[in-house]
Design a protein that fits this description.
12 helices, mainly alpha, 0% strand, 251 residues, Sterol_Desaturase_Related, membrane, single chain, transmembrane, oxidoreductase activity
């Protein structure tokens, strides 16, 4: 509790920044690119460094700077044209209040798990529908499947509808569950990391799916198969929904 309180007190020193309508977009872009950059470095080196390439899931593929720039440009465009105006509206419509006390550690863990599991379910249903209904796939989701070999900057390579609808799930869940603002920030950070890791294209020894036991978490190999096969592995993180619906595929 005392550690969390110290962190929260440090964050509250920048409350004026937190209340700025520019903060959500700055936060999102900064965290996202910070998570992408290590994998960008791996992609740049993998063709020349064999010990890096051996961890690449699709070892015969490579990522060009043109591909990475195309993905980055679309992500920046979506943030500027769609996410920023909505952030301003949200800032005007629902000002955030920041309590003095930090949440307890067990409450943070519980709320993070609940937000993540709820998002995983929402994403699964959304994703399944956008593959099973041809019009939805052609109109909205096909953009994200331009690359059959995943890489980190392809995480946010999607059209406006996909960006906004999945962003809506991520934004509204902490509100619905009434979590502490600190927990909400941690959820967005965790969600972005897991999403980038899903698309990174590498099966690293310390990857999340290797840390979670019993095959409960799919990770990068799970999602890479989805980009190759298209008709399986619709859940972003955990494997239980794909198991229940018979859509789990592993290689």
């Amino acid at each position: 509790m005392f550690g969390l309180q110290y962190i929260w007190d440090s964050i509250l020193q920048y409350e004026a920044v937190l209340r700025s309508p520019y903060f959500p977009v700055f936060f999102s872009i900064t965290v996202y690119l910070s998570f992408c950059l290590p994998f960008v470095a791996l992609d740049a080196l993998s063709s020349r460094v064999s010990w890096i390439r051996r961890y690449k899931i699709q070892q015969k593929t490579s990522v060009s700077w043109k591909m990475m720039w195309s993905c980055l440009a679309l992500s920046l465009y979506n943030h500027a044209v769609y996410i920023f105006p909505l952030s301003v509206l949200h800032w005007y419509w629902r000002p955030v209040s920041y309590p003095v006390m930090a949440p307890g550690l067990l409450r943070v863990i519980w709320d993070l798990a609940t937000c993540l599991l709820l998002f995983d379910f929402q994403y699964f249903v959304w994703h399944l529908l956008h593959h099973k209904v041809p019009w939805l796939y052609r109109t909205f989701h096909k953009v994200h499947h331009k690359y059959t070999s995943t890489f980190a900057l392809a995480t946010e390579y999607s059209g406006a509808w996909e960006t906004l609808s999945l962003g809506f799930f991520a934004a509204v869940n902490p509100m619905l569950l009434g979590v502490h603002p600190m927990t909400e920030m941690l959820f967005h950070i965790l969600n972005m990391w897991l999403s980038v890791e899903d698309h990174c294209g590498y099966d690293l020894p310390w990857a999340t799916h290797r840390l979670v036991p019993f095959g409960l978490y799919g990770g990068a190999p799970h999602h890479d198969v989805h980009h190759q096969k298209f008709k399986s592995n619709y859940a972003p993180y955990f494997t239980h929904w794909d198991k229940l619906f018979g859509t789990l595929h592993s290689e």
